[in-house]
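Example protein
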Amino acid sequence: MAVKVSAVEARAQDSLFVGHCSLSGLEGQLPLLWPTPPDVPPCPKKSYRSDYQYLGFEELQEPEAWATLSDFDLVLRLVDFSGLRPVLAQRLGWTSAQGWRPFDPVSMFLLQGWQIVNGWTRAETLRNLGDARYADYARRFGFRKDVYPTEGGLRHFLTALGHHSEVEGETVTVELDRDRVVEVAIQYLNQLLAGAVTLIREASLLSPEAWNRALVCPDGMLHDAASRLRCTSVRDSCYQPTTAGQRACPAQAKGNRGCDCDTLACAEVCKVATPRDREARYVWYSGSNQRPDNPNRSTDPTQKKRKRGRGRYGYRSLPLLLADPVRRFHLSLLSDFRPANDHEAVPATALLLQLALFYPDMHLDTFVGDAGFGTDLVLRTVYRLGARRVVDLCARKTDKNKELWPIRGYNDKGRPICPFGYAFTANGYDAQRQRYKWFCGQVCLQGAEPVVCVEGACYPPKECPYQQPDLSHGRILNIGETFADGSMRLVRDVPFRSPAWKRLYHQARNASESRNATFERWKLKRLPVYGGLRAKAIAYLADTWTALTTLARLVREATLATSTA
């Protein structure tokens, strides 16, 4: 029986990883320089109330540093963030040297990252910043003694980042169908993620296979808003002033009590609409990790079944993750941030279409997703991007009707079925022609039983035209974008639940679970800020710092592996 090797052990046994990614391997590249995109203008501000400067990595020459310093501490020593200054200035909306004298945006970025990775509140962060015990952090962030931002300054930083993440008129077009399109705003806070990913690539932490045959997976995470829910039916209209007559109440439209929108208390904004989280929405989340064969489930048919799940009020982050099956870690490539009740198919499609914008040299090979992404929109987009579709099935009740399988030509798992009810055998994926090959193998002449018997047919079916001796494989099918009937919902470029499908699905799902676990550890399941703009900024910053701390963790592993070799 083969011994399972952990991800850490596997990386320690990877001579290329240890040789290239340890301190000794990286020393000639240090510090890693934050990349500034060529189209980003220089920062217009000429002076700041703080002054970030890279302070070196000499401390890392001491072996004990790798055991005592946190991942965040290592990042401060491995990376020179000076190149991030113009990127942040653009995202903060700075267009002129005139006006107030702000803090260095890099100082604020590092301070905000310090808060995120420690799970602190703003008050705790600022209190620690002024504490003598943390003087080295203040120095490395670039703050001068007793010249620190206020809580209002931190709020303004996040609000500005969230507000300027979108640029008017810069969108990606998502084709819902032949007649309908939707324009999705490009989120330029993804520049932060792209910068962190570039650093990881420059440090050779990613295997070449991970980039040249990219395995990507979207997976949304719900975040509870800082505000408390008042009404589950709140919509955008609830935040609009009344005009002529009564504002329509969405709660009353559902048969609930709602509120009296014609009263003075509701004249400007509905009195039960949460004022500080206008973009947050309510959703009933029924997702569950509970086994379908749960032993605690009652067998009494008269017992009322409890509705699974619970209500959530807040937002949804949607990262597009890259899994590295060789080095066994993951990164967030791009992300989106929306109200909790928004569906994921459209933003996920928009993220796929933006990969070429942020990562033009990456080759997309496989897209993995749960059943929520098994829509024609996502499946069509993935196929047209030249990638394989490894997506859980979005099932329908009619799929279980076996009598339909020979008629439509495939079963409930997307496996081709011949007109006489025999199942086809998989014969591999043709990447050049982008289609999966199947053959019947004339199993009807070899005593095989059909998966479904067709009424009126005789067995073996003598009328089948593919029983000729010269047709050793029988009938051959090539399934591309759709089945012969034009349906796409059950088409998969890797047979559903085959060993290859399970391997790819497992690799991608591990990536999404790890990201969500990091967010929970950093206390981001419930957001620490009010308002959609600040919440968006926090989510993007957290994904960026997840990538940066991953960089530090892997360099630490490689360095420690050299010392024990």
In short: Residues 532-564 form the longest helix (33 residues). The first strand starts at residue 32 and ends at 33. Residues 7-167+532-564 form one domain. Residues 190 and 334 are 6 Å apart (CA to CA).
